[in-house]
Write a structure and sequence with these properties.
Structural class: mainly beta
Distance between the termini: 53 Å
Oligomer: single chain
Mean pLDDT: 87
Low-confidence stretches: 16-21
Shape: elongated
Strand content: 35-45%
Number of strands: 30
Largest sheet: 5 strands, antiparallel
Radius of gyration: 26 Å
C-alpha cells in the first residue's frame, strides 16, 4: 500500500521495469528486535517519481531530533532542467527529510548549492547532534582534469542548508598549507572508494582512496568537526604497512575514536599468491594510531585461506563495532556470502597497574574489568624484549582485581600491562 500511489495511478502509470531505469528509494523502519517499525518511507512522492529515469537510494539516517534523512542520486536527467532549472540534463544528488510517520519536513531537494552535475554512490550521509552532512561528487572536477571532486555540504536537523558546497581537496589543501586540489583529500570518485559517517555528536569521518571509482592505492582519513572545519587529516597506514588498499569504510565513535576497514592485497602463506583480505586499523580521538593493521576475521587470514574477501562496511554504535563484507571463504558453499564480525569495545581507557610492598614481597594489582590485559616484564629499560610475567595472576579482592606477588630481590624489574 505504501508504494501503490507511486507505482501506478490513473494518469501516468509507472510501468517501466526497474532494470530499464525507473524506480525510487524506499526505507523500511525497524524496531530493535527486527520487526517492522512505524512504516515505510519513500524518498519521492508520485510526481517526483514519474519522470523517466531512476532515483537510486544512497543512504538514510536517523537525525538527533527523530527525523529521518534519505539521500539519493537522481538519474532523471531531464528533471534536472524541468524541476530545478539547470541549463542542461544531467544526474543530480538529492535528499528528503521526513518525520517517523512520513510527514514531510524538507521536501525533495538538491544537495548541491550549484546546478552542476553531481553524483553519489554508497552510504554517503553522516549525522551529528546539530544536523547532518552529505558527501557527493562533482563531475568534472573544477581543476579541469575531468575527474570527480569529493564534496560535502552541511544541513540542520530540519534539512535546511548550513553551508555551501565544501570541496574536500581544497579544504585539506588549506588545512595542510599545500594549496587547492590536494590529491589526498577529495579522492574516491562518486563514492565507490569512500567511507563517510558521523558520530552522532560533533564529528564526521571521511576515508578515501584514489581519484576514480573502485581503484586501489593509499588510503587517507579526514575527520571534520560538525561545522565543516578539519580536526585532522592523515594516511591510514604507516610506511610499508599496507600494499594496495581498496573499498574503504570508516566508523567514528562519539568520543572521536575511528576504526577504518578495507580490503588489501596480502600474500598467502599457503600458496605464495596474492589475494585480498579484510583488514582494519584504529585511531584515537587525535588521529594517533592505536595499533597496527589487524585481520577482521579470524577465519580469513593469509595462514588459513586462499580465497578473496572484499568490500567491507562498518558501523559503530555505543560499545559494539560491526563489520560486514563479501566473503568467498564459507566452508559450506563456493558462492560469495556476507561475512559478519562483531567486536565489543570494552575499554575506553586502560586500567592502572599498582605496586605495593607487603612484607618481603611486591604485590601488583590491576582491575579485572576491562579484561584481556597481560602483565609483562623485563630486566631493564634497554632490554630488547618483554616477557609474559611469571607467576600468573590470581584473583584478589573477591574477584574485582588481578594480583601478582613477587619476592623482592637485589635486581630491578620493569612491568607493563598490555592488550
Amino acid at each position: 500500500p505504501a508504494f501503490l500511489a507511486i507505482n501506478q495511478d490513473a494518469n501516468n502509470p509507472l510501468l517501466t521495469p526497474t532494470s530499464s531505469g525507473s524506480g525510487f528509494p524506499a526505507v523500511q523502519l525497524l524496531n530493535n528486535n527486527g520487526t517492522p517499525g512505524s512504516g515505510i518511507l519513500t524518498g519521492t512522492d508520485d510526481d517526483q517519481a514519474q519522470p523517466a529515469g531512476q532515483v537510486t537510494p544512497q543512504g538514510m539516517e536517523y537525525l538527533a531530533n527523530g527525523n529521518i534523512v534519505i539521500v539519493m542520486e537522481s538519474r532523471q536527467d531531464q528533471d534536472f532542467v524541468n524541476r530545478f532549472g539547470a541549463a542542461a540534463p544531467n544526474r543530480h544528488a538529492v535528499y528528503r527529510v521526513l518525520g517517523p510517520t512520513g510527514a514531510v519536513v524538507k521536501d525533495y531537494s538538491l544537495v548541491s548549492s550549484t546546478l552542476d552535475r553531481t553524483e553519489m554512490v554508497g552510504f554517503m550521509v553522516g549525522v551529528t547532534r546539530n544536523g547532518f552532512a552529505i558527501r557527493f561528487s562533482y563531475r568534472p572536477r573544477h581543476d579541469g582534469s575531468g575527474r570527480t571532486s569529493g564534496t560535502i555540504r552541511l544541513f540542520d536537523n530540519s534539512g535546511n542548508p548550513l553551508s555551501d558546497d565544501i570541496n574536500q581537496s581544497d579544504a585539506v589543501g588549506e588545512y595542510l598549507g599545500t594549496g587547492p586540489n590536494n590529491p589526498t583529500g577529495g579522492n574516491g570518485g562518486r563514492g565507490d572508494s569512500v567511507g563517510f559517517h558521523g558520530n552522532g555528536v560533533d564529528a564526521y569521518v571521511n576515508v578515501c582512496i584514489g581519484d576514480q571509482e573502485g581503484v586501489s592505492g593509499p588510503a587517507y582519513i579526514t575527520v571534520y568537526n560538525s561545522d565543516g572545519t578539519i580536526r585532522y587529516h592523515r594516511p591510514v597506514s604507516e610506511t610499508g604497512e599496507t600494499n594496495s588498499a581498496k573499498f574503504p569504510d570508516a566508523a567514528i565513535h562519539a568520543d572521536g575514536r575511528v576504526v577504518v576497514v578495507f580490503d588489501d592485497v596480502i600474500t598467502s602463506s599457503l600458496t605464495g599468491n596474492n589475494n585480498r583480505l579484510i583488514v582494519g586499523k584504529m585511531f584515537d580521538p587525535k588521529g594517533n594510531s592505536m595499533g597496527p593493521l589487524f585481520y577482521v576475521s579470524e577465519r580469513e587470514t593469509p595462514f588459513n585461506t586462499v580465497k578473496e574477501n572484499v568490500e567491507p562496511k562498518i558501523v559503530w554504535r555505543d560499545n559494539l563495532i560491526a563489520v560486514v563484507w563479501k566473503s568467498l571463504s564459507s566452508p559450506n558453499t563456493s558462492k560469495a556470502v556476507v561475512g559478519l564480525r562483531v567486536f565489543n569495545d570494552v575499554a575506553t581507557t586502560p586500567p592502572n597497574l599498582s605496586i605495593a610492598k607487603s612484607g618481603g614481597n611486591a604485590v601488583m594489582t590491576w582491575p579485572a574489568t576491562p579484561a584481556g590485559y597481560t602483565l609483562r616484564s623485563k630486566a631493564s629499560v634497554s632490554a630488547a624484549t618483554w616477557e609474559t610475567n611469571s607467576p600468573a595472576p590470581v584473583f584478589g579482592n573477591g574477584g574485582a582485581v588481578y594480583q601478582v606477588t613477587e619476592p623482592i630481590g637485589s635486581s630491578s624489574r620493569i612491568y607493563q600491562l598490555i592488550r
